[in-house]
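Q: I'm writing up a methods section and want to include an example of the input and output format. Could you take the sequence below and give the corresponding predicted structure tokens, formatted cleanly so I can copy it straight into the document?
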Amino acid sequence: MPGFSKNNKNILIQKEVGESSWFGFSIVLKDQLEGKRDEVINRFKELGIETRPIVAGNFTKNMAIEYMDYEIHGHLLTADYIHKNGFYR
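A: Here is the clean output for your methods example:
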């Protein structure tokens, strides 16, 4: 797995805007890390660092969706990408 730093071109890290709450921040994997979310999260876990899903992505993959009346128009490509490659640290 490539090194994990703010200058890594394989990740998108939430930017500080002067009013951020730094109890956590979002990370989205791309390029060489795309599709390796579980691997990255497991490495963080080994290091004692907790992660959470981003409160976004494809909500239709959430178990709560079975209790809702909804319709989907078109494909949810970006939501699927965030669902598969994003997490909150």
